[in-house]
Amino acid sequence: MKPSTPDPASHRSSFAAEVHKLYGADLYFFLLSRLKNEHDAKDVVQEIYLRLLRLGQGELVRDPHAYVYFVASQVLAQFRMRAKHSPLVYDSALLQASDSHGAQLGQDGVADRWLSLAEVEELLDALPSMHRRVFVMRKLDGLSWAQIAEALDISVHTVKKYLCEANARISVMRRDQE
């Protein structure tokens, strides 16, 4: 049985509140089935409700059920696009902390997750020469993008591009190894 549609003429509550009451659980499970991550599904649901709040009372919406799922599909597509293009981050400070506290980390199992030095060298060797040089200069030597660009006689944009590509390649190679 299809839930009743929200009454756009009702001024007691907003359109978003009515939608939440009628479709909230179904919308959440719709997104959860597509995202496979509870936190991401909650984030996307929140964004949908924010967009519905901007709409106001929703008096122009003819079919609220269809409209809500249309908005959901648009927000979901944008969420996936942002996730696909978000940069990967390498946390060198955490790696350095593990070196200085190796014995302590081993006790709770965190050190077991780190790559061996041979595995790191293998990953770096698989990178193209310039990608490897930029990656090492940034992550190990701690140079800024401008310093790397000057040292290698390339633009800052190219440094950023090589670093992003190196991170992505390392991530893919690590995923393939697991």
| Approximate helicity band | over 70%
Number of continuous helical runs: 9
Strand content: under 5%
CATH architecture of the largest domain: Orthogonal Bundle
CATH class categorisation of the largest domain? Mainly Alpha
Question: Could you explain the architecture of this structure?
Answer:
The protein is mainly α and 178 residues long. The chain has 2 domains: 15-85; 92-177, Winged helix-like DNA-binding domain superfamily/Winged helix DNA-binding domain (Arc Repressor Mutant, subunit A). Helices cover 71% and strands 0% of the residues. It has helices at residues 15-35, 38-55, 64-85, 92-100, 102-108, 117-125, 129-139, 145-152, 156-177. The chain is elongated, with a radius of gyration of 24 Å. Mean pLDDT is 74; it is low at 8-12 and 101-113.
